[in-house]
Amino acid sequence: MTQNLGELHRDLAGVVLADRELPDVLNEVVGLARRALPGAEASSITLIRDDKPFTVAFDGQLAMDADELQYERGYGPCLDAGRAGEIFLVTDMRIEERWPDYAVHVADRGVRSSLSVPLPFQGATIGALNNYASTPAAFGEADVALGQEAAAFVAIAVGNAEAAARATQDVTNMRMAMLSRSVIEQAKGILMERYRLTAEQAFTLLTHASQRSNVKLRDVAEELTSTGVLRGS
């Protein structure tokens, strides 16, 4: 296990996060996780948003099939791992009693054992790393340690990607706000010069035009600066 853990550390350290789409990163990571766990024949990453689960990456169709069976029912080891933040190890699906209906159907698909590890991020759980095998007892304590290591990396990658997305959106919003402010200031200047108004009076005229025409203030200002016409005047 020490050798596998060291190899996993090395492989995860080589994953490039910058300038890549999150699904590409997670597809690479889930492949590394599957290969690091000797018993895993298929692996997947489930994310949960607003209590809605979805598989964001998978390596092996068996994993996607097993995930979908859980989503249809609203419960199962990967969902419970993602929601409760607990590790769920299933030794033999044919005698599993915690999720009896799911266990019967997934066993029919060829899954005999599984390991679901929560994705921890900033004190919360955002999903799970799921591993499936066609043989009973395919996973043990060594696999749990490997799974936790991979899950921690997945959580960091997801968190970084979401933080970057928020930052990009914040920058976009800031630019839009600055552009709107600039256009409104230009429109005010036109009205101040045209009607000999104060800045406050010019802004009031703009807002009244916006309200009467039910058009956003920025759009009214932009129309004035581009055509010289104040809407509704």
What does this structure look like?
With 233 residues, this protein is of the alpha+beta class. It has helices spanning 2-13, 22-36, 61-73, 77-84, 100-108, 141-195, 199-213, 217-227; strands spanning 42-49, 52-59, 88-90, 113-121, 124-133. A 5-stranded antiparallel sheet has the order 2-1-5-4-3, sandwiched between helices. Helix 7 packs across helix 8. The model has no long low-confidence stretch (mean pLDDT 85).
Radius of gyration: 27 Å
H/E element string?
Answer: HHEEHHEHEEHHH
| Extended strand count | 5
**Percentage of residues in DSSP E strands:** 15-25%
Give the class from helix and strand content and strand pairing: alpha+beta
The coarse overall form would be: elongated
Q: Report the sheet with the most strands, covering strand number, pairing sense and barrel closure.
A: 5 strands, antiparallel
CATH architecture annotation name of the largest domain: 2-Layer Sandwich
Number of helices: 8
> Which stretches are low in confidence, meaning pLDDT under 50 for 5 or more residues running?
none
Mean pLDDT, nearest integer?
Answer: 85
Q: Which strands sit side by side, in order, in the main sheet? A: 2-1-5-4-3
CATH fold call of the largest domain: Beta-Lactamase
Count of domain modules: 2
Distance between the termini: 78 Å
Which bin fits the share of residues in helices? Answer: 55-70%
What name goes with the CATH superfamily of the largest domain?
GAF domain
CATH class of the largest domain: Alpha Beta
